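<amino_acid_chain>
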Amino acid sequence: MQLVLNKFQQAKAKGLKQLAVLIDPDEYKKGNLPAIVENIHIGKVDYIFVGGSLLTKNEIHDCISTLKQLTHLPVVIFPGSPLQIDDAADAIFYLSLISGRNADLLIGRHVETAPILHKMDIEVMPTGYMLIDGGLPTTVSYISNTLPIPADKPAIAVATALAGQLLGLQIIYLDAGSGAKQKISVEMISQVTKNVQLPVIVGGGIRTPKEAVESCTAGADIIVAGNAFEQNADLIIDMAQAIHQLNKQTINS
């Protein structure tokens, strides 16, 4: 059953915006997770994503297992490689890097992992992953050996997202990358969300509640933030409250 995907779709149909906290297993040791999850619960965050472009420690299983003990929220793997697969999670983004021209990340890795995922009790969500220039070279662009879509070329982003939709993908994920200097522009988010009917996730470079609300108002369905919380854990609560306030306005309008 596509339980997590259904949550994405139902919220989008109602015009409600959601927040996901991205946890890098390399950065968060098990001892830190309870405090992080406490803020996630206080803020009423919607999802926890786990993964990274490059993991140097073999802790993803321990990280996910600990999270599942601490929270009832959906835990979704945001994989940076075939090694980041674990059936302790509720779901996994089956990422096809449609913004690049690296065939290995369009279909090659999928052929390798499909037999494994087919036997696992985990929800697999076909996702069109689009890397957008965030003003600085990122780990994901280096590891994937692909160029991001230029930040000032929304027409390219729209055409790419439409191609993903027509190919049958179920989610569009726009990402400026971890540590991006600038977030994805309001114009690009607006143009993409006006042209596709799929849930659109936006991440990278979102550091303040105001920026989260701007991205949501432009059309993003789910905001993802991770690096910003490392410097200020309370930001989880502030960002979540800002999105909840936006949802209240939608409901009351």
Q: What stands out?
A: The beta strands are 18-23, 47-50, 75-77, 91-97, 123-131, 171-175, 200-203, 222-225.
